[in-house]
């Protein structure tokens, strides 16, 4: 059950939005060479990890080399997806005019295409965060995570489906924008599905050939250990990204919103919805880097185009502003937040009548 929220007058809500706008403006004014050095350093570390991991896998006749190589390759894939790819595609570094860090063209080491991610995530999810029927990330079309979702017998298998989805997370993300449910329901033609499937299939094929054909073949007699190392590295990345993303969106106190919430939505109202639809994770600097700073999911939803490494400093002021306006600020250790995610998965797999979605609004009567 989502926590109660304090009602705000239109004037108070406007003042709340103005404070966050001012915080954004102060932060944007600081963006410059320090941010460029940071992202280039992360890119360099990611490349070192990947090269070292693949070299060690080529020497995987020695078990310690296989373990270390697999771990380094997994870490490289996490950095590529979380701190580099995800943040770059939000346009956080477009101001650098670096063609390798262009948010509109960046392509990452994952089965899903950058173009589809920019549509489903950057536009749909960030614009309509947790708005039922508009945000496709609510359960990803597979899971019932809120009581307002209608229960179906399929959800009895939800605990198992959730595990499979976590292991194959990059593939689930890859097909998300295809909206297979519409196709099977006859609301999408074969021609449309074929056109949408082609770029996805090309990206999937490229990933499969790279990780499971080219690099294993280059290893010669160590084909199988390298194949296994690449497979496990992808699993490591999938499990980590799944856990971080689910902890940022499906803890106990996040809110689900009706479509009416976006009608004539003001800037302050939009900020309010982003905060109530997100959760943070506590941790140290290395932890934040490995999450792509999505451990600061609240700040990311407020300011998705600000370089994510700045969220830690921003978070202190965001939390203080929320406290003054009586707006809940959801944060906790990963173990606590993920236990709440698991509870949602288990609890809402069981039969229940769909709860009525309240008309959530911050406005005082």
Protein structure class: mainly alpha
Averaged pLDDT: 94
Number of helices: 14
| Sequence of secondary-structure elements | HHHHHHHHHHEHHHEH
Which word captures the global form?
Answer: globular
N-end to C-end Cα span? 23 Å
Q: Got a strand count?
A: 2
Biggest beta-sheet profile = 2 strands, parallel
GO biological process, one term: lipid metabolic process
Pfam families: FA_desaturase (PF00487)
Protein name: Linoleoyl-CoA desaturase
Keywords: Membrane, Transmembrane, Transmembrane helix
What's the structural blueprint in terms of helices and strands?
Elements: H1 10-30, H2 33-58, H3 63-89, H4 114-127, H5 158-167, H6 169-175, H7 180-184, H8 190-218, H9 223-249, H10 267-276, E1 280-281, H11 285-290, H12 297-302, H13 311-325, E2 331-332, H14 334-347
Parallel strand pairs: 1-2
Helix pairs in contact: 1-10, 1-13, 2-3, 3-9, 5-6, 8-9, 9-14
